């Protein structure tokens, strides 16, 4: 009997798995083909009840990855290889007929996006938007549906009066809360949040983040949370994936990634975070992010990497487990980790007195 490769066996506690996912923008300019390899071989999973964060600098492919896992692919973006699998779909996402793919949206897979105005129809009252998105998925009569919407708003401590408002009558923070209510009304198994608090001021941001956390744990959904803001990741996510030039370069429990970054790019990101009272100047990375239409061979970070070795110029380092639940794609980091490093004793003085 044929053996099933380990990578294609779905783990029962995984809600999302991607296997070697590649999504490219394919264009033709003046007869010349151009291909932007925005997502280039990402394999990862998100567990049940988990918030998985994705961080990385602008243009590293975060939004493209989100589009690929949320079946929001439009030309010139194409899925050129790999698979996206959800626990609530028998087959891969892209093996489903288009009609079935659209049927899982909002019911099983929903979104909280940055520009809430884009989701809320500016010429329809909020309750109409709830109807447009969720009525057909909930299989309830009109009166029961209205009651369920009101109950849901109550659970999220939102006043029922907002249902009669137009989006422009609400503040930015309130519109974003409405979007969270919209995204969670059908109690989806999976939520995609793309920069959901970027446009909000710090105080409103804090409330909206608390609401996202609370809602996710109340409904037991899993979530992918994308933002370039590492401070937000530190507060919200359980595990964190760091993207660089279309690839995942490090992944681990958020606290571990912050306390022990193993990839030189992650170490740079964390070292650049401002700290109260620290007036030391921060050094910038040399060079600029690669052009994804013509990325460097080997490790894409090597032209900017302080630890680059000869092998990094030719070979792409695989994402390798270097500590418990901690994967890194770096030849230098792999060379530095000895197996016994996993069991390092805790240094004296790092724990509080008992
Ligand atoms: N419609 C498009 N056509 C061609 N290339 C695109 C398109 N959209 C994005 N790209 C390119 O794909 C790459 C990844 O972009 P993407 O928007 O996914 O990055 P990002 O990490 O989400 O950036 P940001 O944080 O700025 O939103 C970039 O090189 C970008 O220029």
TrEMBL record:
Residues 16-270 form the ABC transporter domain. PROSITE patterns: ABC_TRANSPORTER_1 (PS00211), ABC_TRANSPORTER_2 (PS50893). It is a peripheral membrane protein. It holds the Pfam family ABC_tran. It comes from the Bacteria. InterPro entries: AAA+_ATPase, ABC_transporter-like_ATP-bd, ABC_transporter-like_CS, Oligopep_ABC_C, P-loop_NTPase. Signal peptide: none annotated. The keyword DNA repair does not apply. One of its GO terms (molecular function) is ATP binding. It is found in: Cell inner membrane. Keywords: ATP-binding, Nucleotide-binding, Transport. Belongs to the ABC transporter superfamily. This is ABC transporter ATP-binding protein. It comes from Neorhizobium phenanthreniclasticum.
């Amino acid at each position: 009997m044929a053996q099933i490769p380990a990578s294609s066996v779905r783990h029962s506690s995984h809600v999302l798995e991607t296997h070697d996912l590649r999504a490219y923008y394919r264009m033709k300019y003046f007869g010349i083909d151009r291909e932007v390899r925005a997502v280039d071989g990402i394999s990862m999973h998100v567990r049940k009840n988990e918030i998985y964060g994705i961080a990385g600098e602008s243009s590293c492919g975060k939004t493209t990855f989100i589009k690929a896992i949320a079946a929001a692919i439009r030309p010139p973006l194409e899925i050129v290889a790999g698979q996206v699998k959800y626990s609530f779909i028998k087959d891969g996402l892209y093996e489903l007929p288009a009609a079935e793919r659209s049927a899982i949206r909002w019911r099983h897979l929903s979104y909280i996006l940055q520009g809430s105005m884009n989701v809320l129809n500016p010429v329809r009252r909020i309750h109409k938007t709830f109807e447009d998105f969720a009525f057909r998925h909930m299989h309830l009569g009109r009166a029961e549906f209205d009651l369920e919407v009101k109950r849901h708003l109550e659970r999220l401590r939102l006043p029922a009066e907002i249902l009669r408002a137009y989006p422009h009558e609400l503040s930015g923070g309130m519109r974003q809360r409405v979007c969270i209510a919209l995204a969670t009304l059908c109690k989806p198994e999976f939520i995609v949040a793309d920069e959901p608090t970027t446009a909000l001021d710090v105080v409103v941001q804090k409330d909206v983040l608390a609401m996202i956390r609370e809602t996710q744990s109340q409904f037991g959904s899993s979530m992918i949370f994308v933002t370039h803001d590492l401070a937000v990741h530190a507060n919200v996510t359980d595990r964190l994936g760091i993207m660089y030039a279309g690839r995942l370069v490090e992944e681990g429990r958020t606290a571990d990634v912050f306390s022990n970054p193993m990839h030189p790019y992650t170490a740079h990101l964390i070292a650049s975070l401002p700290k109260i009272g620290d007036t030391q100047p921060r050094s910038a990375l040399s060079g600029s992010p690669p052009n994804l239409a013509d990325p460097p061979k080997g490790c894409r970070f090597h032209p900017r990497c302080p630890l680059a070795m000869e092998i990094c110029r030719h070979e792409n380092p695989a994402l390798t487990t270097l500590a418990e639940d901690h994967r890194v794609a770096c030849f230098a980091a792999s060379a530095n980790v000895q197996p016994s490093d996993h069991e390092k004793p805790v240094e004296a003085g790092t724990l509080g007195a008992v």
